Every structure is written in C-alpha cells, then in structure tokens.
C-alpha cells in the first residue's frame, strides 16, 4: 500500500475532484481552451451556442482558481462554481428551450443548485479547517 504525505494526498484528492467536475463539460472545455466556445462549431444555431457559452465564465474561474491547500475548502469553492454553471445553463434553457419537460427540469435544477450553493456558503462562512 502506498502511503502518501498528507499534503500530497490532499492535492491528489483535489485533482481527482476537479477532474470529476470537469468530466461532464469536457467538450465545452475543449472548445473553450481552443478559444472556440460560442463559435459556429456548435451545431444548432445561436441558442445552442448560448448554452455552451454560458459555461465559459465558470470554466475561466475554475481553471484560474489557485489551490488553498485545504481540499475541503477548494471542493466547496469549486462546487459553487460548478452549480452556478448549472444555473446559468438552466436559465438559458428556460429562455431558449422548447421542451416543457426540459424547462421543468431546468427550474428544478435552479432550485436545487441554489440550495446547494447556500450549503457551501454556510460551510465556507464557518471557516472550518481540516482536522
């Protein structure tokens, strides 16, 4: 069994958490990294481009975020960003989408993500540190 130093282990967990967060948006991330987000490479016209473009500000923040050295704090901070991207995408669905089912899901996503962001904010406001 490999025993890692605590800081190295914490950094490894942060990297894994970040990878998991970005897995669901990998195609958007690839477009963003190449400077092509929101361009005509997205099929489906302006609404499809807008939904992809709604992720760009959040991805910028996630990619620019410096590790605090506290995996719990970094996880909460990155999850807030992730949930905000979900809210932004859901708002685009509400404004541009046609499906009643997807609009209902978008409303639920906004509600759930706002609730979760509140939980992360309360945890971060407590200033908890690792044991």
From TrEMBL:
- Alphabetical UniProt keywords: Signal
User: What InterPro entries does this protein's entry cite?
Assistant: DUF305_CopM-like (IPR005183), Ferritin-like (IPR012347)
Coiled coil stretches, renumbered: none
Signal peptide bounds: 1-32
Residues of the DUF305 domain: 32-124
For this protein, the record's PANTHER family field holds: SLL0788 PROTEIN
Q: Return the protein name.
A: DUF305 domain-containing protein
């Amino acid at each position: 069994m490999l025993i890692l130093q605590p800081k190295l282990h914490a950094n490894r967990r942060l990297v894994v958490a970040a990878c998991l967060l970005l897995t669901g948006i990998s195609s958007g991330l690839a477009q963003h990294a190449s400077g092509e987000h929101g361009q005509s490479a997205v099929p489906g016209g302006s609404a499809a481009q807008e939904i992809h473009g709604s992720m760009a500000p959040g991805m910028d923040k996630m990619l620019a975020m410096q590790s605090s050295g506290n995996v719990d704090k970094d996880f909460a901070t990155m999850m807030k960003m992730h949930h905000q991207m979900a809210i932004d995408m859901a708002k685009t669905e509400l404004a541009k989408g046609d499906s009643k089912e997807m609009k209902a899901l978008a409303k639920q996503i906004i509600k759930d993500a706002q609730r979760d962001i509140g939980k992360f904010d309360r945890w971060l406001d407590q200033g908890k540190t690792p044991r």
